[in-house]
């Protein structure tokens, strides 16, 4: 296993950022290759600890000559976001200089050619340099996994429709509970940018049937635990075995995904009607009926009429809910995956 350090120039000559990259060469040039990164939103750590638990398995496989396809692994992909600390808390979702989400505005290139990506000689903000570098690292890999987490939620995948149902084996191996299918555009998120150049190629060159490109949402931001990390690492390892990156005859690799599959336009981002404290009646995974109360907002505590009920806009199941119990008017309370198309359907990114 080779470790190298990537350096990202800052916006000032006195500032630069670094992050490690681990590479394992495969023994078979025809085997699928894999790229795995975590913490693009730098304070999302479930994927980081999953990679940490995965690495001993990969080192053992390498020592025994069982790595068939090349692997590139970036355990913490966002040193720029990690440096944005306020009152002891990282601000990892948006770059404060450009006010842009770290998982938006990746370069969309017309073919898988790293020469089309901007280099460090081009005047850019540090977050834009980081995005170009991460995309360059991922190019050429058949499997591209971007490990994230939600506030509180089920483990689930975002998968572009062009890759489903061919990626059902991946969802089954990883042990997620839901898959959300999307199309059109997602604001040039990392997974969109990673697959985009291949979608521009003729089918014979694109080889979409062997590609697995996804955003992985590992439950909630507080779900950083030894047992969960181990289980997630097992899921990643099963996927690598199932797709032929790693050889391991002792591992069972399921093909059939038995979880929930829904198009993104079935998701209702249920907003709070007012500011206040949130009292939830539901948790991720619960099924609800149309009109069922899912939360109460305590907006004027102690006063008559100081509570406002929030009802489910349609039947479905709760995918996620917010971790903070304080809300402003219009703040999203839950992602409800409905049984039908949402009245407020969105085909691309659900959140900023």
From TrEMBL:
The prosthetic group or cofactor this protein requires is: Zn(2+)
Leader sequence segment: none
Q: Domain of life here?
A: Bacteria
Q: Which InterPro entries match?
A: AstE_AspA_cat (IPR055438), N-alpha-Ac-DABA_deacetylase (IPR053138)
Q: Which residues form the Succinylglutamate desuccinylase/Aspartoacylase catalytic domain?
A: 31-193
Pfam families with a match to the protein in the record? AstE_AspA_cat
A single GO molecular-function term is: metal ion binding
From the Swiss-Prot or TrEMBL record, give the protein name: Succinylglutamate desuccinylase/aspartoacylase family protein
